[in-house]
Amino acid sequence: MTQMIFVNLPVSDLEKSKAFYSAVGFTNEPKFTDETAAAMQLSDAIVVMLLTHEKWKSFTTKDIPDARKTAQVMNALGAESRDAVDAMVDKAAGAGGTPDCNPKQDYGFMYGRSFEDPDGHIWEVFWMDQAAVEVGPAEFAEAQG
To answer: What stretches pass through the bilayer (predicted)?
Structure first.
């Protein structure tokens, strides 16, 4: 079985968040969606669960932080190319997200940009040259001269 990750996010407006994630490239899985939660699938292994605040509170007694003011996590997604990084961030911006909420990263072998969803959750989208992945960034840079 493929190991999966489910990223659970509290959202203030479920329908708005579903529309945002659909515009960015996620697909709604109706078998796991109701008026309190929506499963938004990016791949066979990655699912984002959008949870209303009421649903979120049924899982934990911790307060829901305002993600526009505080950051607890940054979710990172790998992309197939630099163009794919730009395309996803541009889609997020077009759907009401905040593009480049963190500084762009361009190290030659790695390129990344970020966006915030309507609730302020941060997503980093990055591309990395496979040669750098195989040998490590320092060795790759040294080999490049």
So the answer is: none
